Hints:
Elements: E1 8-13, E2 17-22, H1 40-48, E3 52-53, E4 62-68, H2 71-82, E5 87-95, E6 102-106, E7 109-110, E8 120-121, E9 130-139, E10 142-149, H3 156-163, H4 183-186, E11 206-214, E12 221-225, H5 230-243
Parallel strand pairs: 4-11
Antiparallel strand pairs: 1-2, 2-4, 3-4, 5-10, 5-11, 6-9, 7-8, 9-10, 11-12
Catalytic activity: a uridine in RNA = a pseudouridine in RNA
GO molecular function, one term: catalytic activity, acting on RNA
Family: Belongs to the pseudouridine synthase RluA family.
Amino acid sequence: MPVKNTNYSVIYSDDDFIVLNKKSGILIAADRYNEDAPRLDLMAQEEFGKLYAVHRIDKDTSGLIIYARTLEAQRELSMQFEKREVQKTYHALVYGHPLWETLDVDLPLQPDGDSRHRTVVNKKFGKPSFTSFRLIGTCGPYSWIEAKPKTGRTHQIRVHLAEKGLSIVCDPLYSGNQKPVRLSEIKKKWNGDEYEERPLLSRLALHAYKIEIKHPKTGEAVSFTAPYPKDMDATRKQLAKIFGVDPLA
């Protein structure tokens, strides 16, 4: 019996392209800083044969990634991303409470802008970068936020939020606060063992939730959503139970 790959699940596949839901911590293609890190394209090629990248998401982000299966599909899909015709929706859990319901951030970004290879705002050398944010709701110390990036810069959502004073839970690069989400800290009558407790979530709380493209062969509009990974979903359920706010409701 074949071993089920736990690093990704298949959301959709046909002869032209595939849509995968990847877990956090997996690169989607070769990385010059970390040549030996696990790579999604190499894992998925064992199942699907040769794959061609058409866009990127951060290693630490979970969720939707598309690969083309032919050079024609790669060309067509890459053009859609380049022309900003693709609709992308992300969900993030952040610390604190924004004072806005919706926010558009238009700040030029320069990747690899400091010694930690972080993306920085640079008005002179940065490339145009635009993200629309919407507050889904607040839950105790946290808030759920929907992000729709119009451009595809490295770490774009993370930097645009950080520039507005909000950091995504457990962001290793742009947040000063690395505290994982623990049930004991959000539930009033928690009676577990604090030494045995495992965090609900201890990695970057950013998920590529939905993507809308035109099919590379037929041109028809198609849309895909990726279920939350186990850790993010457990966090969602607990926060919804306690605070009555559910980003998937």
